[in-house]
Amino acid sequence: MTFDEFAAARLPALLRYAVMLTGDRDRAQDIVQDVLIRAHSRWWRIRRADRPDLYVKRMVTNEFISARRRRALRTVPLDADPGSAGGPVHPDHAVTGTDTDDLWRRLAELPRQQRAVLVLRYYEGLPDAEIADVLGCASGTVRGYASRALATLRLELTESSVATGGDKP
User: Fold this and answer.
1) Which of 8, 22, 66, 101 has the fewest CB atoms within 10 Å, i.e. is most exposed?
2) pLDDT at 129
């Protein structure tokens, strides 16, 4: 497979993944563009990998998590429609628009590694072993990140529900 064929086939999925990580369509496009520029110059090596798509996805993840970007941007603005960069996202009809906005805000506050694990697991549907490969860590670390992220979200949602007098967890 040539780089052009790879990029044409995988660009929509890479953009959706980056949007889910960043919550910002413009930043997602910048990240994917930077990664594809680097991948193009290394394509001779990347195409020999067992899963070039996971290799490039790891590059996107690393670019998102990188300290350079973290210092340059202190907050992550979120759009109400994270899937509009390249395809539909199947909405959870049980969640109202307000709840969705609240969830996006809470996800944006998670540490980047934890957020990446949740996106890779629940949006991309990857198993822990592949998430570990994308993040460059052990499967146990992936499970730890997921556990801490979900515990944080549960705690915040419970506290929010108690504070507002609602009965939703």
Assistant:
1) 8
2) 93
